[in-house]
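Dear colleagues,

For the upcoming journal club I promised to circulate an example of a predicted protein-ligand complex. I picked one with N~2~-sulfamoyl-L-arginine because it came up in last month's discussion. The inputs are reproduced below in full, followed by the predicted structure.
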Amino acid sequence: MKSILTSALLASTAFSSVVPRAGQKVDYDGFKALRVTLPEGSENLKTQIEDLVAHVLNPGKKELDVVVAPKDIAALKALVIESKVINEDVGAALKEEGEFKAYAVPSESWFTAYHPYADHLQFLRDLQAGYTSNSAIFTLGNSVQGRTLTGIQIWGAGGRGSRPAVIIHGNVHAREWITSMTTEYFAWQLLTKYASDANVKAIVDKFDFYITPIVNPDGFVYTQTNDRLWRKNRQTVSGNTCVGRDINRNWPYKWEVTGGASTNPCSETYKGVAPGDAPENRALSAQVNTLRDSRGIRLYLDIHSYGQYILWPYGYNCNLRPENNAQHQTLAQRAQAAIRAVSGTAYTIGPSCSTLYATTGSSTDYTDVTGNATYSYTYELRDTGTYGFTLPANQIQPTVRETWAGVLSMFKDA
Ligand code: 0X9
Ligand code: ZN
């Protein structure tokens, strides 16, 4: 996401006005992605903009990335100080994302296209079946619509469940498709390189990995059937027609703090009625608590897109730092350098509230404090807005490879 100055007042009022008709998919042909600059102190204006546009992509403060229908472009331009086109035709960009390919057993070619949800599950099963002595499929609980949150556990020479945990979550936000591909690439690398690469072996022998590539399966499926730019889960709200809680605003830590999430069910950052009242959050926090109480959590990674950031706690307060802030920074700097060395891709690093914007009830604050994780990071993968969430298929491999270099350096250092 785009860097902004301080708190995320805007995050509390980001609406999505695109509602597909039953059985129909939203058609984004001719829609533009714009980066608009707002005047200072323009809360009313923000609300107007959010009502006008189809999606707010980044709930920031001074600048906003939005997707807008052709008929609303002139009205939007009249409201803002400045606007820059970041994508001329969102519909055309969706086509560049690439077609789904027929499923093939895990090989590097998996990372050349995006895939349907059922194929993601099959990928995990097939990968696991190739490495039965040091991996297992696990489940964490069910989504709102009853899909099982499914992951893969990977261990090394110490045996199953004997080492500190590394927890990795992907596709928390439904539209961030590159993040499931990337977390699957981590699992694929750890298993396929274990026997041949001494660096990978050392890491797999040191930790127990718990990788869940799609922690928001209902939202993910909805992006494939109805609205490619859907973000939240698919939970209804009593007495309201708007759908979805933001899973990264629903974790039961500092959920009640204001300014980093929305209390409006129509907002992209709706926090829910009570802390942890999304079933996906209950499943995820139970995983964190269980591993905290057994092996302890060495590293937590929440993989998002877009913006090219590595962020660490805290989200709920811009002045607060974890007690091991300096170590968080050192590991992030090394990961940032490792990513740049692969491809030149530039990442921004820093504590999340002061670097990006305020978030309450977010994953990394929970894992840091309640989960007692030694390290907690949010990655925001490619790009910085050109394609945004709809990163073309020909950028999957470059993205997963550079990100692997970043996380590998973290695994070594953690
Ligand atoms: O707003 C979010 O949840 C994340 N950005 S995204 O565009 N992928 O939605 C950023 C979260 C960073 N903050 C914390 N993890 N605290
Ligand atoms: Zn996200």
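Two points we might discuss: The first strand starts at residue 32 and ends at 37. Residues 172-173, 176, 304 surround zinc ion (ligand 2) (CB under 6 Å).

See you all on Thursday,
B. R.
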